[in-house]
Design brief:
Helix content is 38%, strand content 16%. The protein has 335 residues and is an alpha/beta fold. Strands 3-2-1-4-5-7-12 form a seven-stranded parallel β-sheet, with helices on both faces. It has a two-stranded antiparallel ribbon with strand order 6-15. A two-stranded parallel sheet has the order 8-11.
C-alpha cells in the first residue's frame, strides 16, 4: 500500500531507463509551465531525478502551498506566475526545453471566455516567448471524434473533430503551437492524452467512489483507454526527442480498449461490493490508438491490475483525492 503523497509522488516520478537515455542526449535546463496541476509536480520531479547537474524550473500560480513545498523538496526551483499576464513572461528563465501543461477543463462550461484564454491565448504567448526552445505541449484525445468501440480508436493522422467548446479550445491550443512553429521554426510535440490515472484522480478513482457510495454508473460511454500517470510522465518526457517542425503529434493512452462495465466489476470485486449500472453502451466512444507511442518508446510498465490495486486501496482507505472528476462519460462536450 502507498502510505502517503510523498511516497506516491516518488512512484509517479520514477524515470525509466528510456527516459534517462533520452534526457541524457538533450542539452540544457528544463521548464515546466503549469507545474502545480495534476501532472505537473510529478513530471517536474521526474525530470529532476533523470538529469543531474541541470536545473528544472516549475512555474504555476501555486494555490496549494503544500504542493509547492513538495516540489521544492526535490531540488526544483519554483516560480509563481500567472501565465495570463503577458508581463510575467519577461521574468521567466531562458531554457531550451519547455513542457507546457497549463490549461482549463474543469468548469469550462459556464466560463467559456476563460477557457479559451487559458487554452488558446496562453499557448500563443508561450509559443512566442519560447520560439527558440523545444516544446512539448499537452493536448487531449478530446480533439478526436467518437469512434466505433470495436476498433482501436483514433490515430494521430486522423482528422480532429472536437465536440463542445472545451475540446474546440484544445484544438485551438494545438493550432497556436503549430502556427508559431511554422513562423519561427520551433520544434514541438503535441501530446494527445487520455486518460492518466493515479490514486488521487482519474477514471478509476471516479468509478471507485461511485461504487463505494452505491451510485449507479452510466455506461453509455462504455469503453475507455486508461494509463498509469507514471507511465504517461515517462512518455511525455521522452517525447522531447521527437519534437519537430511542424509539430509531431503523439497519442499517449493505454494500449487497450477497456470496457467500463468490466473495469467497474473488477474494482467492485476488490472492494467487496457489487457495482450498479445505468443505461447501455453506445456504439461509439472517445478512444485513442497509442500504437505509435508504444512502437517508439515501448509498452507501459504498469498493468491494469496494478493500477486497480494502487488506486482502489488508496481511495477505500479515505486518503486525499483531488475531487476533480474526469467526466469521461460526457458525450455532449460540456465539461
Amino acid at each position: 500500500m502507498i502510505v502517503d503523497e510523498r511516497t506516491l509522488e516518488e512512484m509517479l516520478s520514477e524515470p525509466s531507463e528510456g527516459t534517462r537515455e533520452v534526457l541524457a542526449q538533450t542539452k540544457g535546463d528544463f521548464l515546466v509551465l503549469g507545474a502545480g496541476g495534476k501532472m505537473g509536480p510529478t513530471l517536474a520531479m521526474m525530470l529532476r531525478r533523470a538529469t543531474s547537474g541541470r536545473k528544472v524550473f516549475a512555474v504555476s500560480r501555486y494555490s496549494d502551498c503544500d504542493v509547492r513545498a513538495r516540489i521544492e523538496e526535490r531540488g526544483i526551483e519554483t516560480i509563481e506566475a500567472d501565465l495570463l499576464d503577458e508581463a510575467a513572461y519577461d521574468d521567466l528563465p531562458n531554457v531550451p526545453n519547455v513542457f507546457f501543461l497549463a490549461g482549463m477543463k474543469f468548469g469550462a462550461t459556464g466560463n467559456q471566455p476563460l477557457t479559451w484564454a487559458m487554452n488558446v491565448h496562453v499557448p500563443a504567448l508561450v509559443a512566442k516567448r519560447y520560439a527558440r526552445s523545444r516544446i512539448v505541449a499537452l493536448s487531449t484525445g478530446n480533439v478526436y471524434p467518437f469512434t466505433p468501440v470495436d476498433g482501436s480508436g483514433s490515430r494521430e493522422e486522423d482528422a480532429p473533430c472536437p465536440v463542445g467548446e472545451y475540446a474546440q479550445s484544445c484544438l485551438g491550443r494545438e493550432r497556436m503551437f503549430e502556427y508559431f512553429s511554422q513562423v519561427h521554426g520551433t520544434a514541438a510535440t503535441l501530446i494527445r492524452l487520455n486518460y492518466a490515472n493515479e490514486p488521487r484522480y482519474g477514471i478509476l478513482v471516479d468509478l471507485t467512489k461511485k461504487i463505494l457510495r452505491d451510485e449507479p454508473i452510466d455506461v453509455t460511454m462504455g469503453f475507455v483507454n486508461v494509463i498509469w500517470q507514471g507511465d504517461a510522465n515517462n512518455y511525455i518526457a521522452q517525447s522531447l526527442s521527437i519534437a519537430t517542425c511542424p509539430p509531431a503529434i503523439l497519442n499517449v493512452a493505454g494500449p487497450d480498449v477497456i470496457r467500463v462495465r468490466d473495469l467497474a466489476i473488477r474494482i467492485g470485486r476488490r472492494l467487496g461490493k457489487e457495482p450498479r449500472f445505468a443505461s447501455q453502451e453506445a456504439a461509439t466512444a472517445l478512444l485513442s490508438d497509442s500504437s505509435s507511442c508504444v512502437e517508439r518508446f515501448g509498452p507501459p510498465a504498469t498493468s491494469l491490475d496494478e493500477m486497480i490495486a494502487h488506486i482502489v486501496d488508496w481511495v477505500a482507505a479515505g486518503k486525499a483525492v483531488l475531487n476533480k472528476p474526469t467526466k469521461y462519460d460526457v458525450r455532449d462536450g460540456k465539461f
